[in-house]
Amino acid sequence: MTVGGHSVNHTALATMSEDSVRSEMRSRVAIIEAALGGHPQHFGYPLDDPASAGPREFAVARELASKPP
Questions:
Q1: Which residues share a beta bridge with 43?
Q2: pLDDT, tens digit, for every residue of 40-56?
Q3: Structural domain count of the chain
Q4: Is residue 3 one of the residues assigned to a domain?
């Protein structure tokens, strides 16, 4: 089984500043690490709107997924 991360508040990330996007995603990583003792290597996105996430958000997800503690 794989557990992946996503944003904390399920906000359209593309509408947020880059710092806010990183904070949302880092917070979820920390929650998963604390609860399960492992680092998520995947990120899912709960919104069904192609405009709610784009290249910037995908890059942040790749960066966070590739940096286990």
A1: 5
A2: 888 887 677 888 889 99
A3: 1
A4: no
At 4 the pLDDT is 75
CA 53 from chain centre, in angstroms, equals 11
Q: How far is CA 48 from CA 11, 16, 57, 66, 67, in A?
A: 12, 17, 15, 25, 27
Positive or negative: CA dihedral 43, 44, 45, 50 = positive
Q: Residue 49: inside a domain, yes or no?
A: yes
The residues, ordered by sequence, that sit 6+ positions from 6 with a Cβ below 8 Å of its Cβ are 25, 28, 43, 44, 45, 46
pTM comes to: 0.77
Question: Does residue 5 fall inside a structural domain?
Answer: no
